[in-house]
Amino acid sequence: MKIVITNIGTIVSGDWRNPLIDGDSIAIADGRFTSVGSVSAEEIEACDLLIDANGATACPGLIDSHVHNSFGDYTPKQQAVGFLQSYLHGGTTTCISASEVHVAGRPKDREGVKALAVAAYKCFENYRPGGMRVHGGSVILEPTLQPEDFAELRKEGLWLAKAGFGSVNTPYDYVPLVRAAREAGFIVNVHTGGASISLGNSIHGEHLLAMKPDVAFHVNGGPIAMPDEDFKRVIEESSIALQICQAGNIRTSLLCVNLAVEHNAFDRVLIATDTPTGTGMMPLGMIKTVTEMATLTDYPAEWMIAAATGNNAQVYRLETGFLKPGKIADLLLVDAPMGGTQKNCLAAIKHGDVWSLAGCITEGVPRFIGRSRNTPPPLRTPKVVRSRVVQDFSTAQQFS
């Protein structure tokens, strides 16, 4: 499918160092961006779908790098069914599994641990809820695993691992497991802060520095944060990515963001949700955290959008997260909410308003154009002005 979007008010790139792109149009073909900023008359004439953004803002689809899915669109811990499709209507176009730790009767033996990860990975190879991409199958680092197991799992395509819920005596027991997983090519995430639902040991700065994972999950707490003094050490003494979550401590989220900027480490700041958990199922969790971090700091809203898109993509080696030719075409059309005081999306975010989602495209396929079912109505409503596709992309029927 070839898509052209015109009359865009602002284009947010997903790259915090160069966050805004000049121009007012975007072209997509075969699931990837072909032009960003300006589009030729030939591309407009050849497109299958022409969308008038009506002055709305375009930005990359949000990447939630901490989601508690299990199999399919269901998580047993909160008995949540259909939550991933609902998250899509909150702007999340990619989810990364925080491991399938909530599966009832989760195995801890060597073969069971591997089987659970492989099954979850392959499940989401074949299933895209609402059009969302889910990276499942994050292997839980249990002490029963051996170095050769990681090579075996990599051959099956798995690339994510999680420390923090294994049956270890102390967090230091994760050090050889994290090393073995990383040497095999895994991206390793680690639970950070106080214990959550398990009776596992709290993981603080000294443990992170010993483990050397790729990402400190919910570094602001999930939900209990590590000591304040640990943040500076982790930022200064490591290259660990710093994931802040909606389900954590908002004060330490701000502490982390400010320290990262001071140390020229904002590339390492990732926004995620850590849901569904006891905090709840939160379709607007990503939007809410982006807004909080922008309105409660002195930094631009487009930086926080980058922390929820391009920064995640860079750390997790994804082909999405940026509005850039050649990248996978995951795109949102967003705007200030109707009834608010601000006149565009970025101003609304800085003001502290929940922004409106007025269109969503994943891998070059429109999922809806006009309005999300989960956000307030936008000031400006994008419209399909020409279509050679036999499909209605509007969501008007949801509000009748």
Report on this model:
With 400 residues, the protein is α/β, with parallel strands linked by helices. The chain folds into two domains: 2-60 and 322-399, Urease, subunit C, domain 1; 62-283, TIM Barrel, CATH 3.20.20. Helices cover 27% and strands 23% of the residues. It has a six-stranded mixed sheet. Helix 7 runs parallel beside helix 8 (250-262). The mean pLDDT is 94.
Features:
globular, 12 helices, 6-stranded mixed beta sheet, 400 residues, 6-stranded parallel beta sheet, TIM Barrel, alpha/beta, 23% strand, Urease, subunit C, domain 1
Judging from the principal axes of the Cα atoms, what is the shape? globular
CATH architecture of the largest domain: Alpha-Beta Barrel
Radius of gyration (Å):
21 Å
Count structural domains: 2
Helix content: 25-40%
Give the CATH class of the largest domain.
Alpha Beta
Strand order of the largest sheet: 3-2-7-19-20-21
Outline the biggest β-sheet: 6 strands, mixed
Strand fraction equals 15-25%
Q: Say what oligomer this is.
A: single chain
Q: Say which CATH homologous superfamily of the largest domain is assigned.
A: Metal-dependent hydrolases
